Amino acid sequence: RPVVVAAPPHRNWVFVKVETDQPGLYGWGEATLEWKTRGVVGSIEDFAPIVAGRDPRNVTQIVELLNKAAFWPLGVIGLTALSAIEQACWDIMGKELGQPIWKLLGGKVRDRVRVYTHIGAGRVKVSRDRMDIGEYADSAAEIKEMGYTALKFGPVPYTHYDYPLPSVRHAADLLAGVREAVGDEVDIMLDFHGRPSSMTAALAYIDAVEPARPMFVEEPVQPGDPQAMLMIARKTRVPIATGERLLTHKEFEDLCSLKAVAYVQPDLCHCGGFTVGRHIAATAAANFAGVCPHNPMGPVAGAVGLHFGVAVPNFVVLEEISGVIPWYGEVVPQSPIHRVDGFWQVPEAPGLGVEIDEAAAARHPFQQ
Questions:
Q1: Among 118, 249, 270, 294, which one carries the catalytic annotation?
Q2: Which of 57-60's residues contact partners 24+ apart within 8 Å by CB, and which partners?
């Protein structure tokens, strides 16, 4: 059953609680999807009778069933609902066995999980419309002081098929200012969000920011065209990343087989949870690509990303926005997320290690 929690201004968190016939044994998953809350909740309710009565420990069987019983391809709404149910089943299995999920995924390959946050995440706020260089530099410096070793922001406006030279020069100056503020010790990631309408415009901005040596440029053009990503990658030395708006293993396979990107960014709340996420990571590794999961959602999604990062060999860094909601601790009295400098620590609690206070959650009902 879904539990919706308004987390303004960005989104409603959608949690899924999968209960069992064993008293006190249940699992949590997260199905947060921007501007699609009602659709996702409806899909969860549609899936409930298909899952009811089945053994939640047979996670792969449940994933296959939900995919194939639907007849139509699930799309982002259906896959988001499926992902949350899948995560909750892993949570149940971990709790029953008394083990954290990362152990069930094959054990740890690292002793801590690197995370990054976004410009404006601290006390220093920025105007994303003005993209003031001083504001961005001050925010970046603050994020470095907070202990993070990586940060991300979007340096480009929505751009037509051509490109205005003043905007391109401003992007170059903006990157130079942020790089000067954080030095070489902090990685800078850039999210274009597919705003350039052409590869030519995207490359103009990529060339402009290259001197600041960004870790990657994300979604230089709209996702879904592997050949376009390949053409861009061949024309620049800046690593390219994409994947937050790709859904299926096949989409990632098509992209990776071309060696079109340096990093893939699956969202474990949209692509099929741990089950499909691990397949995507393995395909990326076979094609020399790292994994940087998309994760701007709520606390259950953060726990999922944490366990994934502990266990997946080609994991690189995880997006996070913890701390942006002032009443976070009320709704989430128990969380496995503990940051030391720019890294989350390896959790030891069974399952995901996260708990939702449903009474507190009810005080923050759905908002349009």
A1: 294
A2: 57/89, 57/92, 57/93, 57/96, 59/86, 59/89, 59/90, 59/93, 59/274, 59/275, 60/275
The question of whether 10 is a catalytic residue gets the answer no
CA angle 183, 185, 187 (to 5 degrees): 95
Distance, CA of 85 to CA of 63 (rounded, Å): 9
Distance CA 64, CA 348 (A): 29
**Long-range Cβ contact pairs of 280-285 (< 8 A, separation 24 or more):** 280/249, 280/252, 281/312, 281/313, 281/314, 281/315, 283/249, 283/252, 283/253, 283/256, 284/252, 284/256, 284/314, 285/313, 285/314
346: which DSSP letter? P
Where do the H-state alpha helices sit in the chain? 37-51, 59-69, 75-97, 101-104, 133-145, 165-182, 199-209, 226-234, 249-257, 273-286, 299-311, 328-331, 358-362
338 catalytically annotated: no
Cβ(229)–Cβ(242) below 8 Å: yes
* Lookup: tokens for 318: 């995880």
The whole model's pTM is what?
0.97
Token pair of 257 as six digits: 């087989």
Q: Which helix (H) or strand (E) holds 29?
A: strand 26-30
CA nearest 311: which of 269, 352, 264?
352
- Tell me the C-alpha to C-alpha distance, in Å, between residue 18 and each of 121, 137, 243: 32, 44, 28
Are 242 and 210 within 8 A, CB to CB? no
Average pLDDT over residues 311-335: 91
pLDDT band at 134 (very low <50, low <70, confident <90, very high): very high
Token pair listed for 37? 């809350």
At 328 the pLDDT is 85
